[in-house]
Q: What sequence folds into this?
């Protein structure tokens, strides 16, 4: 997913803004484990005070598409599968409402076996069946409902890639029996189940929605998770309470209530946290180092953490531009290849991290970030080397590098990053002119190769924890819509991705993706700068607060220390 800001995620489908977040650690059916901020034995009761930084666009899985709404969705809804953090710090796929699944020989037909006894929360209070998933997904993919995240169903037969919906319903969905769902795909895809951890694939009580109307349902949505929505006080707060009849009693939430006040200023959130009225806070811009070095962070009054996030910030390059682009299928004869090398080797990511981001972020050595299964370090053949970059520029005709246009979406943080990069490039003889555009204009301009883009800022945050997600949507040469803003189209790269997608063995598949990543990095349609990190402050009053690498918290695991 293309990143807009650290707390906002977005996708482009048919050149429109789509913001979404992949759910992680979906609550269901596994032995409860506790990861506490300060240790101790969990106890039930109390209220967890967690701020939302903006009014949610929605709090149901069909139309929610930004971080704040999706944090609510994360506590209330469940799907067939979930992601969990393993001992290596990687997000991996495990069962949720599905107990298991299998596939045919070429990965085009998948069969999911549902658990018995999974219940919708009151007032629906009935068991989930396979037909519920058919009805839910067909509803989510109806064009009239305007879901910005229906693209996640792209692989299923009946999905129309030109509209990013399934206007006639999914022909690839079939109920074998009440607890067995068969899914037929449009193409071979060995990692298809991984995509279904996305919240839009959650199950909905369509009979209840049809009874009360979707407009009413969206205000008080009902899922199968450990918490229920008791109130959405628009522009003020969202209130959750423990699901009184949660089907998985062994893994029910500890706190009775979750209070989510809507506070749009990071500075105000931080001040409110210091007053003891919040249990979680962000670090305001310009204060991160100060907070990290504060005596209260040292003595345990505050718990300050910097944790990984599955995302990469990078500079994209329009491969169709005659000045800086080139043909990846004839890279050795590409006259602009050395220009892209010079640009890469003078992109000062360390200055961006240390001075603009106040030490938050990790220098990227590839497009796939740490924490994704199969991650390989040092994939790129290029690194920051201004001396070498300067020599490459000097060797160009007349010792000159043509002036380039760098685009970014209007934002103070992106502006500072652009200026830092501009300074590093200027030091080696590369002049770059900066231009900024509002987000929708930015996306529209990047969606067409003839709109004049040359180099531009971009970021990608994981839709689902797979190497595929960082390679296929952005760089596979035949993707509909606008995710491939570089217009990169390498035959070798494309073929490796197709082979990886049809390889069952994890290690072999990861090797193929890693080989494809190396091809990509060698061609330089993008310059990865840094892997995202999250800087947060926690109150020891509420323990078990763990922010996962996709930016979400399993609030059913937190508990108030007595």
A:
């Amino acid at each position: 997913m293309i990143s807009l800001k650290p707390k906002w995620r977005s996708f482009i489908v048919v050149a429109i803004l789509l913001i979404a977040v992949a759910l992680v650690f979906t609550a269901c059916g596994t032995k409860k484990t506790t990861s506490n901020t300060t240790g101790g034995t969990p106890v039930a009761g109390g209220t967890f005070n967690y701020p939302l930084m903006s009014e949610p666009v929605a709090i149901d899985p069909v139309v929610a598409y930004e971080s704040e709404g999706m944090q609510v969705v994360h506590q209330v809804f469940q799907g067939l599968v979930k992601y969990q953090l393993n001992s290596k710090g990687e997000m991996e796929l495990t069962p949720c409402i599905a107990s298991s699944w299998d596939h045919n020989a070429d990965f085009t037909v998948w069969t999911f076996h549902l658990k018995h006894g999974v219940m919708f929360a009151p007032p629906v209070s009935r068991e989930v069946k396979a037909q519920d998933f058919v009805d839910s997904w067909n509803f989510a993919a109806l064009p009239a409902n305007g879901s910005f995240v229906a693209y996640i169903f792209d692989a299923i037969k009946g999905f129309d890639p030109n509209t990013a919906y399934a206007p006639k319903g999914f022909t690839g969905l079939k109920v074998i029996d009440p607890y067995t769902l068969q899914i037929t795909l449009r193409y071979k895809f060995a990692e298809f189940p991984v995509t279904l951890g996305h919240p839009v694939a959650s199950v909905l009580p369509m009979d209840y929605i049809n009874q009360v109307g979707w407009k009413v349902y969206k205000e008080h949505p009902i899922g199968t998770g450990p918490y229920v929505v008791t109130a959405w006080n628009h522009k003020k707060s969202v209130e959750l309470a423990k699901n009184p009849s949660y089907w998985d009693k062994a893994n029910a939430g500890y706190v009775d209530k979750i209070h989510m006040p809507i506070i749009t200023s990071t500075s105000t959130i931080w001040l409110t946290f210091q007053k003891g009225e919040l249990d979680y806070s962000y670090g305001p811009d310009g204060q991160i180092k100060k907070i990290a070095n504060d005596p209260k962070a040292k003595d345990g009054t505050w718990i300050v953490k910097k944790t990984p996030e599955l995302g990469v910030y990078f500079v994209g390059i329009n491969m169709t531009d005659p000045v800086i682009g080139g043909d990846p299928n004839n890279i050795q004869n590409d006259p602009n290849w050395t220009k892209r090398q010079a640009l890469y080797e003078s992109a000062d990511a360390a200055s961006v991290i240390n001075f603009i981001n106040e030490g938050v972020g990790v220098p990227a050595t590839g497009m796939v970030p740490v924490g994704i299964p199969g991650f390989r370090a040092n994939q790129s053949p290029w690194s920051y080397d201004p001396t070498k970059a300067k020599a490459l520029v000097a060797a160009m005709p007349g010792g000159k590098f043509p002036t380039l246009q760098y685009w970014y979406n209007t934002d103070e943080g992106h502006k500072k990053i652009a200026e830092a990069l501009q300074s590093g490039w200027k030091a080696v003889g590369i002049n770059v002119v900066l231009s900024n555009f509002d987000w929708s204009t930015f996306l529209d301009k990047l969606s067409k190769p003839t709109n004049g883009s040359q180099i531009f800022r971009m970021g990608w945050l994981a839709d689902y924890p797979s190497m595929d997600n960082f390679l296929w949507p952005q760089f596979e040469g035949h993707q509909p819509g606008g995710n491939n803003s570089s217009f990169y189209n390498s035959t070798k790269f494309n073929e490796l991705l197709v082979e990886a997608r049809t390889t069952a063995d994890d290690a072999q598949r990861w090797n193929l993706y890693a080989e494809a990543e190396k091809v990509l990095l060698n061609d330089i349609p993008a310059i990865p700068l840094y892997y995202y990190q999250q800087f947060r402050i926690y109150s020891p009053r509420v323990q078990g607060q763990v922010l996962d690498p996709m930016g979400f918290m399993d609030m059913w695991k937190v508990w108030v220390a007595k």
Q: What stands out?
A: The longest strand covers residues 303-317. The CA atoms of residues 136 and 204 lie 5 Å apart. The chain has a mean pLDDT of 90. Residues 506-523 form the longest helix (18 residues).
